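Example record

One chain of 238 residues, shown exactly as stored in the release files.
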Amino acid sequence: MAEDAGQDADEACAWAERLGWAFGLIAEDPAARGAALVHLAEAQRKVTDALARSNEMWLLTRPLGADEQYREPAFLQARRRHQQAQRRSLPDGVWGGLVGGRDLAAWPGLPYVLLFLEWEAKYPLEWTQHAKAWGTKQSLIREVARARHEEAVKAKLTDLVEIVVQRAYRCKDREYVRVARAVDSADLRGRLDRAADSDSPWARCHAGYVLWLLDRPDLPNTRRVWQTWVAGEAAALM
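Predicted structure tokens for this chain:
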């Protein structure tokens, strides 16, 4: 048990060393966000350069044949440097959360998964410009919805659901129904009720849809169900 705790602490330190700077992306201070975006741009440049070097070494070692090529030290080093650069950047650096068999709730990388989702929720234009990855967004939402979380994480996820339902629909936002079902509570329903009664047509539609599905846990959150709901909302306004 103590050995596991020590490993988790070491892994948490490694995550902080690689991506601790990224918390600036969700800072309220524009200057702090700007500094983090500069750091991100440099990290992404290093990923691009490392990938180009890895591809170059792949071409140079290709005549060796597949078996020998993947034992060639220069090629292996180039691949390793590319992977190391990816782990220090976004969105690449949060893909590790998708490793099967891990307890996501206790995984030291969880704060960075939540960071990536919070960045997209709070500053969608900056996220889209600098780290757009719809597939990663979808996968991470599904992962956090499956895990059992502590109250602090549930509160963060509740905040994310509230933010998302109040804005114009963005790609993969419908996935947050999974999160709402996972953290369903009186607090969440109260926030959704207020959004559904607001002056915003987007909030009324999105929050109403989530509340409707919370009351129907067996109803699948499919595109067809969503489109049927949206059509009904539009008809009600005519």
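Notes: The chain has a mean pLDDT of 91.
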